[in-house]
Amino acid sequence: MPRTPRVPALDREILRLAVPALGALVAEPLFVLSDSAVVGTLGVLPLAALGLAATVLGTLVGLCVFLAYATTAAVARRTGAGDPVGALRQGLDGVWLAIGLGLLLLVALETTAPDLVHWLGASAQVQPFAITYLRVSALGLPAMLVVLAATGVLRGRQDTRTPLVVAVTAAVVNLALCLLFVLGLGFGVAGSAWATVTAQTGAALVYRLLLVRAARGLGAPLRPDRAGVRRSASTSVPLFVRTVALRAVFVTGTAVAARIGAAELATNQVSMQTWYLLALAMDALAIAGQAIVGRQLGATDAAAARATTRRLLGWSVGAGVMLGALLLAVRPAFVLLFTGDRPCGRCCPRPSSWWRCTSGWPARCSSSTASSSGQGTGATWPGPSW
After folding, report:
1. Radius of gyration of the chain from Cα atoms?
2. Rounded alpha-carbon distances, angstroms, from residue 141 to 44, 60, 96
3. Which own/partner contact pairs does 304-307 have at CB distance under 8 Å and 24+ positions apart?
4. C-alpha pair distances (Å), 183 with each of 48, 191, 220, 353
5. What residue ranges do the domains of the chain occupy?
6. Given CA atoms 179, 184, 189, 192 in this order, what sign does their dihedral have?
7. Which of 167, 172, 228, 316 has the fewest CB atoms nearer than 10 Å to its CB?
8. How deeply is 342 buried, as exposed, middle or buried, from its count of CB atoms within 10 A (0-12, 13-18, 19+)?
9. In contact, 354 and 328? CB cutoff 8 Å
10. Can you tell me the distance from the alpha carbon of 4 to that of 306, in angstroms, rounded to the nearest whole number?
11. How far apart are CA 377 and CA 386, in angstroms?
12. Angle at the Cα of 220 (from 216 to 225), degrees rounded to 5?
């Protein structure tokens, strides 16, 4: 009969999955943060354009985050039920869905890039830089979505170490190429975009190799299954709806900043990416919850799943308090890491604004963990984390 796991053993399992997931999640926004630091040396206009373009790309990729979260829960349940072939097959259906969506988004973004930049309110000086970055970066969208889906497959199989290695390696390659293309070869904003496309494509190829090797080892078919792809798409609809609502807030904020001025838009880019970095870092606990709870429910161990959820909620509140205190401590100097332009410095949030921002971190972290544990049960309406 299944037994509730002891707290020390449960903590070790949470750490085993959450710590590598933390590293991988932090590495992902480092793509844009490193780009921001390098492009910021070119001046306010290129940095503002990067902020605008990164918001569009982040929205498109963020809307497809269900490829990772829904896949993690589905694969974890099949794994817990003792069906590794079915688990991998369901994960591969998610990867095929990612390829199709990525190609559609590539065509859509190449076609509508000028209209999107204009709609977001970019000035005439910022628009050319933003359009260039968007059109180059669009070429990497299929690879970005494949990375999302493949990461979900590995998480569902209780492996968060491999995504960590891939993410960190891609982030280092992206930074090196960004320095080479932007500062060394003088490609400007386009060089930053090409660096990201190259790094993401390399990461997708690594995941392809890993999944093909796993499928051949288990005898799982690699070809797409139409019914499976449709099932992956339909179960992801609730996650998509929630992500649309969340992303609308970020896009609206960027559009307002763009209409105020370039300095405000550049500062918004730095602030939002810093917030997003910490928000993704907190998802490490949520990912551990998805993987563990999904596996436990697949093994019909509901008592253990409840114990895991309670423990994760306690961890998340403590982590939220620590992150809030950290943000308050570093607020005076964070803008200077990205640009020395005085207009951006004057737009740095005041202490009162930072307090209003950081005081909600404990609630934000606990809701993230609770919603992702809910996904482990197969209930996708709670939605993914930020």
Report:
1. 21
2. 26, 9, 14
3. 304/2, 304/3, 304/4, 304/5, 305/373, 305/376, 305/377, 306/4, 307/4, 307/5, 307/10
4. 18, 9, 46, 35
5. 7-376
6. negative
7. 172
8. exposed
9. yes
10. 9
11. 19
12. 130
Please state the pTM of the whole predicted model: 0.77
For tokens 């990525």, what's the residue?
102
Let me know: does 251 contact 55? Beta carbons within 8 Å: yes
Q: Tens of pLDDT along the chain (386 residues)?
A: 455 566 678 888 888 888 888 888 877 777 777 788 888 888 888 888 888 888 788 888 888 888 888 888 889 888 888 888 888 888 898 899 999 999 999 999 999 989 888 887 778 888 888 899 999 999 999 999 999 999 999 999 999 999 999 999 998 999 999 999 988 888 888 898 999 999 999 999 999 999 999 999 888 888 877 777 777 777 767 777 877 777 777 777 777 877 787 777 776 766 776 677 677 667 888 888 888 888 888 888 888 888 888 888 888 888 778 877 777 777 666 656 665 555 555 555 444 444 444 444 454 454 455 455 554 444 444 443 43
- Could you give the CA distance from residue 225 to residue 211 in angstroms, rounded to a whole number? 16
Contact residues for 113 (Cβ-Cβ < 8 A; gap 6+): 131, 134, 135, 138
DSSP state, residue 82: T
Look-up of token digits 């190799």: 209
Residue type present at position 94: G
